[in-house]
Amino acid sequence: MSGHSKWATIKRKKAATDAKRGQTFTKLIREITVAARDGGGDPNFNPRLRLAVDSAKAGNMPADNITRAIKKGTGELEGVNYEEVAYEGYGPGGVALYIETLTDNQNRTVADVRHVLTKLGGSFGTTGSVGWQFDRKGQILVEASRYTEESVFEASIEAGADDVELADDEFVVTTDAGSFHEVQAGMKSAGIEFERAELSWIPQNEIRVEGRDAEKLIKLLEALDDIDDVQQVSSNADIDEEILAQAM
């Protein structure tokens, strides 16, 4: 299982606290707004919006918040104009970092990202310096206690998934970005419900990170995630599981 997915699991569990939930809502609202702006306000005809709305519902976001975010995106309500900007860099242990943001002020965002990287043992990279090390993939997360591995494997592979792995207490179904929504539909048709589905940048190869470098990397990832403008941070780190457990 990739280090990215392990870190994503920890992020979801941390987001269960009230403080983190509010921050998560802010990020989801931005994504819903931009998705509606770029592809229209009907989730049935806008896959990106459908994914964002599903993620918001999974996080127990109030329906009114979702509706307002969509209307801001379509122009029915006044809203902020966000831009999608990605930054590339390096963390402790030489790991690659791909940082996706939605911002209404690029100067503020790049300053915030640079500050965190510099302060916590990372560095900025040039455009294209690490992006080639990642592939855009879909990941569908299924609660392992609800289904057998065989049933999840058969349903997902039949629907066109690339792989299924067990990570802690959930099955992680990986798909090609192009078949992401079709695999979700196929799994639902087979009676498999899932906790969450997301498009992520998955590393082609991983770097093992242990000891002090692992501790420093976790602090860096947490600090980057805490920046309001940062939507997602991907890395090619395979972080020591004992140190990951301590981060909980």
Q: What does this entry look like structurally?
A:
It is a single chain. With 248 residues, the protein is an alpha+beta fold. The protein has three domains: 9-74, Arc Repressor Mutant, subunit A (Orthogonal Bundle); 83-132 and 206-247, Alpha-Beta Plaits, CATH 3.30.70; 133-203, Alpha-Beta Plaits. The chain has nine helices and ten strands. It has helices at residues 3-14, 18-39, 47-58, 63-74, 106-119, 149-159, 180-189, 211-225, 241-247, and strands spanning 83-90, 96-103, 123-124, 134-143, 163-167, 170-176, 196-203, 207-209, 230-235, 237-239. Strands 3-1-2-9 form a four-stranded antiparallel sheet. A hairpin with a 5-residue loop joins strand 1 (83-90) and strand 2. Helix 2 runs antiparallel to helix 3. The two termini are 18 Å apart.
Topology:
Blueprint: H1 3-14, H2 18-39, H3 47-58, H4 63-74, E1 83-90, E2 96-103, H5 106-119, E3 123-124, E4 134-143, H6 149-159, E5 163-167, E6 170-176, H7 180-189, E7 196-203, E8 207-209, H8 211-225, E9 230-235, E10 237-239, H9 241-247
Parallel strand pairs: 8-10
Antiparallel strand pairs: 1-2, 1-3, 2-9, 4-6, 4-7, 5-6
Helix pairs in contact: 2-3, 2-4, 6-7
Supply the key terms.
Arc Repressor Mutant, subunit A, Alpha-Beta Plaits, 3 domains
Short description:
With 248 residues, this protein is an alpha+beta fold. The protein is built from nine helices and ten strands. It folds into three domains: 9-74, Arc Repressor Mutant, subunit A (Orthogonal Bundle), CATH 1.10.10; 83-132 and 206-247, YebC, transcriptional regulation domain (Alpha-Beta Plaits, 2-Layer Sandwich), CATH 3.30.70.980; 133-203, Alpha-Beta Plaits.
